[in-house]
Amino acid sequence: MTELNKSKSTVKNTLKSSWLTFFYVGIKDDVFSEDTRRVFIINLFTSVGVIFTLPLSLLSLYQGKLTLGLSLFSIAVLYALNHVYLRRTHNHSLSGNFVIYPLYILMIYLVYSGGVNGTGHVWIYCVPAVALFLHGMNKGLIELSFFTLALIIVMYFFGGHFEELGYHEALKSRIIFSFIVVVFLSGIYEYSISRFNFELKETTNKLKLVANTDVLTELLNRRGMLQRLEASSQKSFHLLLADVDFFKRINDEYGHDAGDYALTELSQIFRVSLPENDSAARWGGEEFLIALCNKTESEAFMFAEALRQRVEAFEFVYLDHRFKLTLSFGVATMNATTTLREAITLADNRLYQAKRSGRNQTRRA
Ligand SMILES: Nc1nc2c(ncn2[C@@H]2O[C@H](COP(=O)(O)OP(=O)(O)OP(=O)(O)O)[C@@H](O)[C@H]2O)c(=O)[nH]1
């Protein structure tokens, strides 16, 4: 890439990132979530609102239309403040109210006053989409019903300019009907989008679950465990790496299905033995990783020993086969000085030592 192309692409990237930072008010994670989408749309709407209302307010003030000018100016200021508020708090529900309620009032005022040369009513068609997006189907439709009622009252009882400007009598009813059509279409659109988003979220959650779960034991798999540990807010936890001793013999003597059954039973023993908030994963074939937090190093060791003895005492019964199993454990601690990867390697080394020293035992530092 030439120097010119490089600097062009840097400028383009900088512009794009400042544009996104502005509209996402600095939110960088999870930009596809419904909440972040709302923040984005509110901000976009308020920015466009300022761009339109500020010049129009200045024009109206210049033309001596004091009330209209001041109303538009207040909206522009409110929208600008809304951006600052949203940037500081990311609170889109309150911020959304700052957008929609002034918008209702402004639209009713425009229809009531006629706006510039009786054109005020042409702006009302932006209301349904914004109301439904910000407040959802139910609340949005209720508010739009009240808004339509207010429109009817204002046009039929206070909209004197319709007659003064010589509009045809049919215009009022056409405005109401066309507004209702836009509400209807926006409602269908909002419904299908939220339905689609719901399905997408459900499918994504299912896929995440499948991707992070072991099919046989239904414990976390290696990927799921690593993700959980990496995302954990805990600064320190103890890792217990367990491997079934001579597992090959179970497969060879009783068949692969008996081996599968043994792995499932073992997982169940882990599940019921684990304290709440701690996790167990199937780390590989007959290898399991348990992560314990809120325990001292010797408590973690004792937990591994207790689990080992529990498995040793357990009788596995599959069809007419009865057999026993033992586990070897390697224990290591992840903390400020030892990273997760290092702790896993240490646990693995200690598990290897446990195997070399005769199996059915727990090794720690
Ligand atoms: N039934 C069944 N067997 C599995 C599964 N995953 C791995 N294995 C078996 O686990 C056995 C592991 O054997 P080895 O690695 O030799 O270890 P081991 O027999 O447990 O001996 P040590 O670990 O040295 O005590 C292999 O026979 C694999 O086929 C599984 O999902 N189901």
TrEMBL record:
<feature type="transmembrane region" description="Helical">
    <location>
        <begin position="68"/>
        <end position="86"/>
    </location>
</feature>
<dbReference type="InterPro" id="IPR048435">
    <property type="entry name" value="MASE6"/>
</dbReference>
<keyword id="KW-1133">Transmembrane helix</keyword>
<dbReference type="InterPro" id="IPR029787">
    <property type="entry name" value="Nucleotide_cyclase"/>
</dbReference>
<feature type="transmembrane region" description="Helical">
    <location>
        <begin position="40"/>
        <end position="62"/>
    </location>
</feature>
<dbReference type="InterPro" id="IPR050469">
    <property type="entry name" value="Diguanylate_Cyclase"/>
</dbReference>
<keyword id="KW-0472">Membrane</keyword>
<feature type="transmembrane region" description="Helical">
    <location>
        <begin position="144"/>
        <end position="162"/>
    </location>
</feature>
<dbReference type="InterPro" id="IPR000160">
    <property type="entry name" value="GGDEF_dom"/>
</dbReference>
<dbReference type="InterPro" id="IPR043128">
    <property type="entry name" value="Rev_trsase/Diguanyl_cyclase"/>
</dbReference>
<feature type="transmembrane region" description="Helical">
    <location>
        <begin position="98"/>
        <end position="115"/>
    </location>
</feature>
<dbReference type="Pfam" id="PF00990">
    <property type="entry name" value="GGDEF"/>
</dbReference>
<keyword id="KW-0812">Transmembrane</keyword>
<feature type="transmembrane region" description="Helical">
    <location>
        <begin position="174"/>
        <end position="191"/>
    </location>
</feature>
<protein>
    <recommendedName>
        <fullName>diguanylate cyclase</fullName>
        <ecNumber>2.7.7.65</ecNumber>
    </recommendedName>
</protein>
<feature type="domain" description="GGDEF">
    <location>
        <begin position="235"/>
        <end position="365"/>
    </location>
</feature>
<dbReference type="Pfam" id="PF20966">
    <property type="entry name" value="MASE6"/>
</dbReference>
